[in-house]
C-alpha cells in the first residue's frame, strides 16, 4: 500500500508525467461535458412526495385517471364591477376552455374566476402554456378588468420560473465569490486561476456524472439539486485545494526540489482530504433513507460530486501546480530556506498561546456562548405553505390571496379526494365534514373518482390542516380513499421531514464518529469532536431562527432545513477538526500533544480560516435564488461554518486538547 501510494505520487509530480496527469483529465472531462451533457429522466408528480403517506397514495390514484398528465389554471378577473363586463368575460372564458363558459362571479361583484385546463406533462410545458395564457389575457380582457393566473398550473409555472437560468446564475456568482476569496487568500494575481479552473471543471463533470447516475438508477431529482451540488463541489473542492496549496507552499520553504515538496505535501494532505471526503460522502448518502425521492436524489448526487472534487484536487491540481513551478505564487514566491509557517509566531499561534494559558476559562466561556446562541432552537416551528415558499411573491400567490377576499379561501387550490369506493357515498361523507364549502366529482376513469373539495380555510393554514385531518378521519373506513392537494401535501411533508430527522440525524452523526474513530484510532477524540460540531449546529440554528423571525419576518422554518443544515454542518464542519487534528498528531510525534496542537494551530490556522470563510460565503450564495428554503439553508450553514472555523476550531478544540493531553487519544496513549 505504501509503495503504491509512493508510486502514485511519483506519477503525479513526475517531470515527464505531471503535465499529462494535469491535462488529460481536464480534456476528457471537457469532452464528456460537451458531448454527453447532463442526464435526463422523465419526471413525475410523485418525485417530490414522501413515500407511504396519504397524499402520495392520492397522487398515485390520480395518475390512473384519464388525461392525468394535465393540470388546471385558475384565472382571476377583478374589476370595480364584474357585472358590467360579464358577457365579454364569459365569451373569453368559453374560448379559453373550448366549451361552455365556466365563469364564477363573487357575491361582492369585484371578482370572478374561471378554471382553464392545461394539457401538459412537464413543468416546462406547464410554464409555456401559463405564459401563453397570461399573454392572451393581457391582450383580450376588457378595459378596466385585471386578469391573473393562479391555481395548481399557475403556481407550478411560477415555481419553475424561479429556476429559469438559476443554475447558471448560481454557478456564476459562486465562481466569482470563490475567485475573489482565492485572490485575497493567496495574494497572487495568478495562482487562484489554477485551483478555480480545476474545481470549476470538477463541478461541471460532477453535474454530468451525478445526473447520469441518478437517471441510471431511476432516482428523482429536481431543479435545486444541481444548484446545491455546485455549491457543495465548489465549497468542498476549494477547501481541499486551500489545504493542499498551503502545505505545498510550506514544503517549498524547506525543500529545493519543488516536485519533492509537492510529493511530501500530497502525502500529508491526502489523508485529511480523503478522510474528509469519505466523511461527507457517508453523510450525504444517509439521505437515501429519506421518504422523499428528490431528497434521496440530492444525497446520491452530492456523494458523486464530493468524490469528483476530491479526485481532481488530489490528482489534477498537484500535477498542474508542479508543472507551473514556484513562480505561480508570484509575487510572494516561497524560497528554499525561508522559515516554515509552523516555526513562526503567526497570529494563530499567538491565539493558541493565549488559549493555552487559561484553557478551562476558554472552554467554559465558549460553552456558555454556544448554549446561549442555541436557546433559539426551543422556539422553532417548521413547515411552509405554498405562499411562504417564495422570497418574492409571484403572480400566482398574489392572485390566490386575492381570491380568498371574495371567495372561500380554498377556492384557488382545491383539496382532492381520490377513491375507488362508491363515489356517491364518499361525496356524502365529504359534505358532512365541517369546514367544507363545496365538493363535486371532477374526473372519473379506471375505477377511480376524483372529488374536488373547496375548504373555507387556506390550504396549509392551521384551520386548513384541521380540515384535511377531519376529512381523513371521516373517510378512514372507505377502501382505497385518500386525500391530496396542496394542503394535504404540505401536512404530509411536515410529517415526513420529522420522520427523516428522527432516522437520518443519528445516522449522520454515527457515521461521522465511525470515520473519525478509524482515522484517529481513538474513542474519546471522535466523541469530543462530534460534540463540538453538534454544539455548533445547535448554536447556528438558534441564531438563524432569531434572524429569520426578528429581522427577516419569517414565521416558520422550511421543513427540510434542519436536516440539510445538520448534514452539511456536521459532515463539512468536521473537516476543519480533521485538518487540525491530523496536523496535531503529526506535530505531537516530535513535540508532544500539548505543544503539537499549538504548532498545528499556527500552521493551519490561516488556511482553515480562509477555507471556512470561503465555504460560508459559497453557501450564502444560495440566497440568489428566490426560494425561502434555500435562503434559510444558506444562512444557517454560513453562520455555522463561521462559528466552527473562528470559535470551535480556534479556541474550543485546542483548549480541550491542552486540558486532556495524551488522554485525548484514549484508549491509545499517544499520537
UniProtKB/TrEMBL annotation:
<feature type="transmembrane region" description="Helical">
    <location>
        <begin position="502"/>
        <end position="520"/>
    </location>
</feature>
<feature type="domain" description="SSD">
    <location>
        <begin position="500"/>
        <end position="658"/>
    </location>
</feature>
<feature type="transmembrane region" description="Helical">
    <location>
        <begin position="631"/>
        <end position="660"/>
    </location>
</feature>
<feature type="transmembrane region" description="Helical">
    <location>
        <begin position="560"/>
        <end position="579"/>
    </location>
</feature>
<keyword id="KW-1003">Cell membrane</keyword>
<keyword id="KW-1133">Transmembrane helix</keyword>
<feature type="transmembrane region" description="Helical">
    <location>
        <begin position="166"/>
        <end position="184"/>
    </location>
</feature>
<dbReference type="InterPro" id="IPR050545">
    <property type="entry name" value="Mycobact_MmpL"/>
</dbReference>
<feature type="transmembrane region" description="Helical">
    <location>
        <begin position="297"/>
        <end position="322"/>
    </location>
</feature>
<keyword id="KW-0472">Membrane</keyword>
<dbReference type="InterPro" id="IPR004869">
    <property type="entry name" value="MMPL_dom"/>
</dbReference>
<feature type="transmembrane region" description="Helical">
    <location>
        <begin position="600"/>
        <end position="625"/>
    </location>
</feature>
<feature type="domain" description="SSD">
    <location>
        <begin position="205"/>
        <end position="323"/>
    </location>
</feature>
<feature type="transmembrane region" description="Helical">
    <location>
        <begin position="226"/>
        <end position="248"/>
    </location>
</feature>
<feature type="transmembrane region" description="Helical">
    <location>
        <begin position="269"/>
        <end position="291"/>
    </location>
</feature>
<protein>
    <submittedName>
        <fullName>MMPL family transporter</fullName>
    </submittedName>
</protein>
<comment type="similarity">
    <text>Belongs to the resistance-nodulation-cell division (RND) (TC 2.A.6) family. MmpL subfamily.</text>
</comment>
<feature type="transmembrane region" description="Helical">
    <location>
        <begin position="191"/>
        <end position="214"/>
    </location>
</feature>
<dbReference type="InterPro" id="IPR000731">
    <property type="entry name" value="SSD"/>
</dbReference>
<keyword id="KW-0812">Transmembrane</keyword>
<dbReference type="Pfam" id="PF03176">
    <property type="entry name" value="MMPL"/>
</dbReference>
<feature type="transmembrane region" description="Helical">
    <location>
        <begin position="18"/>
        <end position="37"/>
    </location>
</feature>
<feature type="transmembrane region" description="Helical">
    <location>
        <begin position="527"/>
        <end position="548"/>
    </location>
</feature>
<feature type="transmembrane region" description="Helical">
    <location>
        <begin position="359"/>
        <end position="382"/>
    </location>
</feature>
Amino acid at each position: 500500500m505504501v509503495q503504491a501510494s509512493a508510486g502514485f505520487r511519483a506519477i503525479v509530480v513526475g517531470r515527464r508525467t505531471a503535465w499529462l496527469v494535469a491535462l488529460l483529465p481536464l480534456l476528457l472531462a471537457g469532452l464528456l461535458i460537451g458531448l454527453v451533457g447532463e442526464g435526463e429522466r422523465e419526471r413525475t408528480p410523485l418525485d417530490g412526495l414522501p413515500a407511504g403517506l396519504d397524499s402520495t397514495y392520492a397522487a398515485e390514484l390520480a395518475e390512473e385517471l384519464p388525461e392525468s398528465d394535465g393540470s388546471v389554471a385558475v384565472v382571476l378577473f377583478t374589476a370595480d364591477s364584474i357585472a358590467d363586463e360579464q358577457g365579454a368575460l364569459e365569451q373569453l372564458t368559453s374560448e379559453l376552455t373550448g366549451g361552455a363558459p365556466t365563469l364564477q362571479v363573487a357575491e361582492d361583484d369585484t371578482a370572478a374566476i374561471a378554471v382553464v385546463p392545461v394539457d401538459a406533462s412537464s413543468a416546462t410545458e406547464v410554464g409555456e402554456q401559463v405564459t401563453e395564457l397570461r399573454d392572451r389575457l393581457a391582450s383580450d380582457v376588457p378595459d378596466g378588468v385585471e386578469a391573473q393566473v393562479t391555481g395548481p398550473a399557475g403556481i407550478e409555472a411560477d415555481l419553475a420560473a424561479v429556476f429559469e437560468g438559476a443554475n447558471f446564475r448560481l454557478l456564476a456568482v459562486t465562481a466569482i465569490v470563490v475567485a475573489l476569496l482565492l485572490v485575497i487568500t493567496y495574494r497572487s494575481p495568478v495562482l487562484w486561476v489554477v485551483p478555480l479552473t480545476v474545481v470549476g471543471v470538477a463541478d461541471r463533470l460532477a453535474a454530468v456524472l451525478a445526473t447520469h447516475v441518478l437517471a441510471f438508477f431511476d432516482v428523482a431529482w429536481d431543479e435545486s439539486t444541481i444548484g446545491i451540488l455546485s455549491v457543495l463541489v465548489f465549497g468542498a473542492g476549494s477547501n481541499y485545494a486551500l489545504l493542499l496549496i498551503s502545505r505545498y507552499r510550506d514544503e517549498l520553504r524547506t525543500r529545493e526540489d519543488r516536485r519533492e515538496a509537492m510529493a511530501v505535501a500530497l502525502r500529508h494532505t491526502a489523508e485529511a482530504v480523503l478522510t474528509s471526503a469519505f466523511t461527507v460522502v457517508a453523510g450525504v448518502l444517509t439521505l437515501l433513507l429519506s421518504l422523499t425521492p428528490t431528497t434521496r436524489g440530492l444525497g446520491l448526487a452530492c456523494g458523486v460530486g464530493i468524490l469528483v472534487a476530491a479526485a481532481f484536487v488530489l490528482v489534477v491540481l498537484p500535477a498542474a501546480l508542479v508543472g507551473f513551478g514556484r513562480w505561480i505564487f508570484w509575487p510572494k514566491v516561497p524560497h528554499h530556506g525561508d522559515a516554515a509557517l509552523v516555526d513562526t509566531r503567526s497570529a494563530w499561534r499567538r491565539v493558541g498561546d493565549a488559549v493555552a494559558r487559561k484553557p478551562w476559562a476558554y472552554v467554559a466561556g465558549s460553552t456558555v456562548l454556544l448554549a446561549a446562541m442555541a436557546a433559539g432552537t426551543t422556539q422553532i416551528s417548521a413547515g411552509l405553505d405554498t405562499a411562504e415558499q417564495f422570497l418574492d411573491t409571484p403572480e400566482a400567490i398574489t392572485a390566490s390571496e386575492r381570491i380568498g377576499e371574495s371567495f372561500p379561501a380554498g377556492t384557488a387550490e382545491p383539496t382532492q379526494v381520490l377513491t375507488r369506493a362508491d363515489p356517491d357515498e364518499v361525496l356524502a361523507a365529504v359534505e358532512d365534514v365541517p369546514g367544507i364549502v363545496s365538493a363535486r366529482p371532477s374526473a372519473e376513469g379506471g375505477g377511480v373518482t376524483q372529488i374536488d373539495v373547496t375548504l373555507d380555510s387556506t390550504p396549509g393554514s392551521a384551520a386548513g390542516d384541521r380540515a384535511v385531518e377531519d376529512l381523513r378521519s371521516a373517510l378512514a373506513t372507505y377502501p382505497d380513499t385518500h386525500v391530496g392537494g396542496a394542503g394535504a401535501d404540505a401536512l404530509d411533508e411536515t410529517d415526513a421531514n420529522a420522520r427523516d430527522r428522527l432516522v437520518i440525524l443519528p445516522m449522520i452523526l454515527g457515521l461521522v464518529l465511525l470515520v473519525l474513530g478509524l482515522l484517529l484510532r481513538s474513542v474519546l477524540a471522535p466523541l469530543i469532536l462530534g460534540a463540538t460540531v453538534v454544539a455548533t449546529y445547535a448554536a447556528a440554528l438558534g441564531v438563524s431562527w432569531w434572524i429569520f423571525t426578528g429581522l427577516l419576518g419569517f414565521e416558520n422554518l422550511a421543513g427540510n432545513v434542519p436536516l440539510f443544515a445538520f448534514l452539511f454542518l456536521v459532515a463539512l464542519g468536521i473537516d476543519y477538526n480533521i485538518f487540525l487534528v491530523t496536523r496535531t498528531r503529526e506535530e505531537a510525534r516530535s513535540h508532544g500533544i500539548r505543544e503539537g496542537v499549538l504548532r498545528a494551530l499556527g500552521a493551519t490556522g490561516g488556511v482553515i480560516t480562509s477555507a471556512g470563510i470561503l465555504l460560508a460565503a459559497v453557501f450564502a450564495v444560495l440566497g440568489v435564488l428566490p426560494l425561502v428554503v434555500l435562503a434559510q439553508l444558506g444562512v444557517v450553514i454560513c453562520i455555522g461554518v463561521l462559528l466552527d472555523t473562528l470559535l470551535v476550531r480556534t479556541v474550543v478544540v485546542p483548549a480541550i486538547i491542552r486540558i486532556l493531553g495524551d488522554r485525548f487519544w484514549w484508549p491509545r496513549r499517544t499520537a
